[in-house]
Amino acid sequence: MEKTHSVSTTILSVIITILGIASFSLCVASEFQRTKWEDLKLDGKLCHLPTSRAFRFGIVALICLCAAQIIGNLIVCRNFCSREKRITSCDARKPTIGGIFLFLSWISFGIAITFISVATSMNKRQPYGKGWLDGECYVVKDGVYLGTAFLVLVNVGSTLASAILTTRKREVDQAKKVYAQL
Protein backbone atom coordinates (compact mmCIF):
# COMPACT_ATOMS: atom_id res chain seq x y z
CA MET A 1 0.00 0.00 0.00
CA GLU A 2 2.81 2.39 0.87
CA LYS A 3 4.59 1.79 -2.45
CA THR A 4 1.32 2.32 -4.33
CA HIS A 5 0.93 5.83 -2.87
CA SER A 6 4.55 6.65 -3.60
CA VAL A 7 4.36 5.42 -7.20
CA SER A 8 1.05 7.14 -7.86
CA THR A 9 2.38 10.39 -6.38
CA THR A 10 5.42 10.15 -8.65
CA ILE A 11 3.29 9.51 -11.73
CA LEU A 12 0.92 12.33 -10.87
CA SER A 13 3.86 14.67 -10.22
CA VAL A 14 5.19 13.91 -13.70
CA ILE A 15 1.74 14.63 -15.16
CA ILE A 16 1.58 17.94 -13.26
CA THR A 17 5.03 18.84 -14.57
CA ILE A 18 4.06 18.04 -18.16
CA LEU A 19 0.83 20.05 -17.88
CA GLY A 20 2.76 22.96 -16.33
CA ILE A 21 5.36 22.95 -19.10
CA ALA A 22 2.58 22.81 -21.69
CA SER A 23 0.75 25.75 -20.08
CA PHE A 24 4.01 27.72 -19.81
CA SER A 25 4.87 27.03 -23.46
CA LEU A 26 1.40 28.00 -24.63
CA CYS A 27 1.61 31.28 -22.72
CA VAL A 28 4.94 32.06 -24.38
CA ALA A 29 3.51 31.13 -27.79
CA SER A 30 0.48 33.34 -27.09
CA GLU A 31 2.78 36.30 -26.47
CA PHE A 32 4.12 36.01 -30.02
CA GLN A 33 0.77 35.18 -31.65
CA ARG A 34 -1.42 37.80 -29.94
CA THR A 35 -3.15 40.56 -31.88
CA LYS A 36 -1.05 43.66 -32.33
CA TRP A 37 -1.83 47.30 -33.04
CA GLU A 38 -1.02 46.69 -36.71
CA ASP A 39 -3.97 44.23 -36.88
CA LEU A 40 -6.44 46.92 -35.77
CA LYS A 41 -8.72 48.21 -38.53
CA LEU A 42 -10.63 51.44 -38.07
CA ASP A 43 -13.80 52.53 -39.89
CA GLY A 44 -14.62 55.94 -38.54
CA LYS A 45 -15.23 55.40 -34.83
CA LEU A 46 -15.70 51.63 -35.22
CA CYS A 47 -12.83 49.19 -34.87
CA HIS A 48 -12.19 45.56 -35.80
CA LEU A 49 -9.65 43.01 -34.64
CA PRO A 50 -9.39 39.51 -36.11
CA THR A 51 -9.13 36.36 -34.00
CA SER A 52 -5.52 35.45 -33.32
CA ARG A 53 -3.91 32.10 -32.63
CA ALA A 54 -3.28 33.34 -29.09
CA PHE A 55 -6.98 32.80 -28.40
CA ARG A 56 -6.72 29.04 -28.98
CA PHE A 57 -3.36 28.81 -27.25
CA GLY A 58 -4.75 30.67 -24.24
CA ILE A 59 -7.74 28.33 -23.94
CA VAL A 60 -5.48 25.26 -23.96
CA ALA A 61 -3.10 26.94 -21.47
CA LEU A 62 -6.07 27.52 -19.14
CA ILE A 63 -7.14 23.88 -19.41
CA CYS A 64 -3.61 22.60 -18.72
CA LEU A 65 -3.13 24.91 -15.73
CA CYS A 66 -6.50 23.99 -14.22
CA ALA A 67 -5.81 20.28 -14.68
CA ALA A 68 -2.38 20.62 -13.02
CA GLN A 69 -3.90 22.51 -10.07
CA ILE A 70 -6.69 19.96 -9.63
CA ILE A 71 -4.34 16.97 -9.74
CA GLY A 72 -1.90 18.60 -7.32
CA ASN A 73 -4.66 19.43 -4.86
CA LEU A 74 -5.98 15.87 -5.09
CA ILE A 75 -2.56 14.61 -3.99
CA VAL A 76 -2.47 17.07 -1.08
CA CYS A 77 -6.03 16.23 -0.01
CA ARG A 78 -5.32 12.50 -0.21
CA ASN A 79 -2.31 12.96 2.04
CA PHE A 80 -4.21 15.06 4.58
CA CYS A 81 -7.22 12.76 4.62
CA SER A 82 -5.15 9.58 4.97
CA ARG A 83 -3.56 10.75 8.22
CA GLU A 84 -5.01 9.64 11.50
CA LYS A 85 -7.12 12.05 13.53
CA ARG A 86 -4.68 12.29 16.42
CA ILE A 87 -3.76 15.92 15.76
CA THR A 88 -3.90 18.12 18.83
CA SER A 89 -5.42 21.57 18.67
CA CYS A 90 -1.95 23.15 18.87
CA ASP A 91 -0.68 21.10 15.91
CA ALA A 92 -3.74 21.97 13.85
CA ARG A 93 -3.07 25.72 14.16
CA LYS A 94 0.60 25.49 13.20
CA PRO A 95 1.10 26.17 9.47
CA THR A 96 3.28 23.63 7.75
CA ILE A 97 5.66 24.35 4.92
CA GLY A 98 3.44 22.23 2.67
CA GLY A 99 0.46 24.38 3.64
CA ILE A 100 2.39 27.56 2.86
CA PHE A 101 3.28 26.19 -0.59
CA LEU A 102 -0.37 25.22 -1.10
CA PHE A 103 -1.45 28.77 -0.23
CA LEU A 104 1.17 30.19 -2.64
CA SER A 105 -0.05 27.85 -5.37
CA TRP A 106 -3.63 29.07 -4.97
CA ILE A 107 -2.62 32.74 -5.01
CA SER A 108 -0.49 32.32 -8.14
CA PHE A 109 -3.21 30.16 -9.70
CA GLY A 110 -5.88 32.82 -9.15
CA ILE A 111 -3.74 35.59 -10.62
CA ALA A 112 -2.56 33.45 -13.57
CA ILE A 113 -6.09 32.31 -14.42
CA THR A 114 -7.33 35.90 -14.33
CA PHE A 115 -4.53 37.16 -16.60
CA ILE A 116 -4.80 34.28 -19.07
CA SER A 117 -8.60 34.57 -19.22
CA VAL A 118 -8.65 38.31 -19.80
CA ALA A 119 -5.78 38.32 -22.30
CA THR A 120 -7.24 35.35 -24.15
CA SER A 121 -10.67 36.94 -24.39
CA MET A 122 -9.07 40.07 -25.87
CA ASN A 123 -7.57 37.91 -28.64
CA LYS A 124 -10.97 36.70 -29.76
CA ARG A 125 -12.47 38.35 -32.82
CA GLN A 126 -13.67 41.87 -32.09
CA PRO A 127 -16.06 42.86 -34.93
CA TYR A 128 -16.94 46.41 -35.92
CA GLY A 129 -19.08 48.04 -33.23
CA LYS A 130 -18.89 45.02 -30.92
CA GLY A 131 -15.43 45.23 -29.47
CA TRP A 132 -14.16 43.56 -26.36
CA LEU A 133 -15.70 45.99 -23.87
CA ASP A 134 -18.34 48.66 -24.54
CA GLY A 135 -17.90 48.30 -28.30
CA GLU A 136 -14.24 49.34 -28.17
CA CYS A 137 -11.31 47.22 -29.28
CA TYR A 138 -8.56 46.31 -26.86
CA VAL A 139 -5.15 44.84 -27.52
CA VAL A 140 -3.13 42.86 -24.96
CA LYS A 141 -0.04 44.74 -23.84
CA ASP A 142 3.46 43.40 -24.37
CA GLY A 143 4.63 41.00 -21.68
CA VAL A 144 1.25 40.05 -20.21
CA TYR A 145 1.48 36.48 -21.45
CA LEU A 146 5.16 36.25 -20.47
CA GLY A 147 4.34 37.44 -16.94
CA THR A 148 1.57 34.89 -16.81
CA ALA A 149 4.01 32.19 -17.97
CA PHE A 150 6.18 33.06 -14.95
CA LEU A 151 3.13 32.76 -12.68
CA VAL A 152 2.39 29.35 -14.20
CA LEU A 153 5.90 28.22 -13.21
CA VAL A 154 5.41 29.56 -9.68
CA ASN A 155 2.05 27.80 -9.47
CA VAL A 156 3.28 24.44 -10.72
CA GLY A 157 6.42 24.59 -8.58
CA SER A 158 4.53 25.41 -5.41
CA THR A 159 1.84 22.81 -6.17
CA LEU A 160 4.51 20.14 -6.63
CA ALA A 161 6.34 21.26 -3.50
CA SER A 162 3.13 21.06 -1.47
CA ALA A 163 2.26 17.63 -2.88
CA ILE A 164 5.74 16.23 -2.22
CA LEU A 165 6.01 17.71 1.28
CA THR A 166 2.60 16.41 2.34
CA THR A 167 3.43 12.98 0.90
CA ARG A 168 6.68 12.88 2.88
CA LYS A 169 4.88 14.05 6.03
CA ARG A 170 2.34 11.23 5.63
CA GLU A 171 5.12 8.69 5.13
CA VAL A 172 6.99 9.93 8.22
CA ASP A 173 3.79 9.80 10.29
CA GLN A 174 3.14 6.22 9.15
CA ALA A 175 6.73 5.21 9.94
CA LYS A 176 6.41 6.71 13.43
CA LYS A 177 3.19 4.77 13.93
CA VAL A 178 4.86 1.49 12.91
CA TYR A 179 7.87 2.23 15.12
CA ALA A 180 5.61 3.02 18.08
CA GLN A 181 3.87 -0.34 17.68
CA LEU A 182 7.21 -2.16 17.96
Automatic annotation (TrEMBL):
<protein>
    <submittedName>
        <fullName>Uncharacterized protein</fullName>
    </submittedName>
</protein>
<dbReference type="GO" id="GO:0012505">
    <property type="term" value="C:endomembrane system"/>
</dbReference>
<keyword id="KW-0732">Signal</keyword>
<feature type="transmembrane region" description="Helical">
    <location>
        <begin position="143"/>
        <end position="167"/>
    </location>
</feature>
<feature type="transmembrane region" description="Helical">
    <location>
        <begin position="53"/>
        <end position="76"/>
    </location>
</feature>
<keyword id="KW-1133">Transmembrane helix</keyword>
<dbReference type="Pfam" id="PF06749">
    <property type="entry name" value="DUF1218"/>
</dbReference>
<keyword id="KW-0472">Membrane</keyword>
<dbReference type="InterPro" id="IPR052222">
    <property type="entry name" value="DESIGUAL"/>
</dbReference>
<comment type="similarity">
    <text>Belongs to the DESIGUAL family.</text>
</comment>
<dbReference type="InterPro" id="IPR009606">
    <property type="entry name" value="DEAL/Modifying_wall_lignin1/2"/>
</dbReference>
<feature type="transmembrane region" description="Helical">
    <location>
        <begin position="97"/>
        <end position="123"/>
    </location>
</feature>
<keyword id="KW-0812">Transmembrane</keyword>
